[in-house]
Amino acid sequence: MDRFYEQFGQRVRSARLNLGLNQEALGHRVGLERSSISNVEKGRQRVQLHMLVEFAAALEVQPIQLLPDITAAADPLRRVPAETRPFVRDVLKSARAQARG
Amino acid sequence: MAKRAESAAARLLASHAFTGPPVDPEAIARAEGVLVVRRRFEDADVSGMLFRDSNHHIIGVNSAHPVQRQRFTIAHELGHRALHPGRELILDVPVRVNLRDKTSSTATDFEEIEANAFAAALLMPERMIRDQVNQLPASKRREPDATAAALSAIFKVSNSALNFRLINLGLTS
Fold this sequence. Notes:
The structure holds two protein chains of two kinds.
Chain A: H1 2-19, H2 23-30, H3 34-41, H4 49-59, H5 63-66, H6 85-100
Chain B: H1 2-14, H2 25-31, E1 35-39, E2 48-52, E3 57-62, H3 67-83, E4 89-92, H4 107-123, H5 126-135, H6 138-141, H7 144-155, H8 159-168
Parallel strand pairs in B: 1-3
Antiparallel strand pairs in B: 2-3, 2-4
Helix pairs in contact in B: 1-4, 3-4, 7-8
């Protein structure tokens, strides 16, 4: 669960930076103090559901874009179509070889 | 949404001292510390992928596709990287540009559209497009097809990507 809020916080942070807003400006838009924004972005403060909508509107994204996908299987390969997995495996294998070389 | 992609692409471009056109998305990726890996794959329709873990950012490109498409794919994956934190693996099937008919609106659809907007803005920055259009001889500028052909060669993008960009910038109809 901590991970969920950390990832939510990362998405908020990234969306905020994309708009070129500082934490204070975002706080102003959603009615929170700068320190709360900082805590939300670090996953230390758990926002309420209606605040998700506030954050999305303030950040000009859809609410779903801020939500981490916690149903994701541990192995990301399982989330892509089976017929595409050889490509993914090949790329990752080649990348590892390049990283070592 | 397009505005967010547009400004993120402009920011990425500005942080690298590249001249252009053409913009080199692979050089930008490398300068950002992203590993670009080309692999030929013909068993399924895949244009590319972005993989991120705590140590590596990897862009995979299907080298079976034409070079212009590979450039667009790299730019598209850079868009996911800049705009869509969180997902460890993003796999991209070829671009389906049919926004008007879109009835579904999953997060994935939004992200694909946004990454495409980012790629277009990165490979065809508005200022560069306007400069190049102004430099075209008047005879070419009057002909939409000739304009698109000339510019797509300069920007190393497909004709359709270039046309779409001109429409979005209000430079043709």
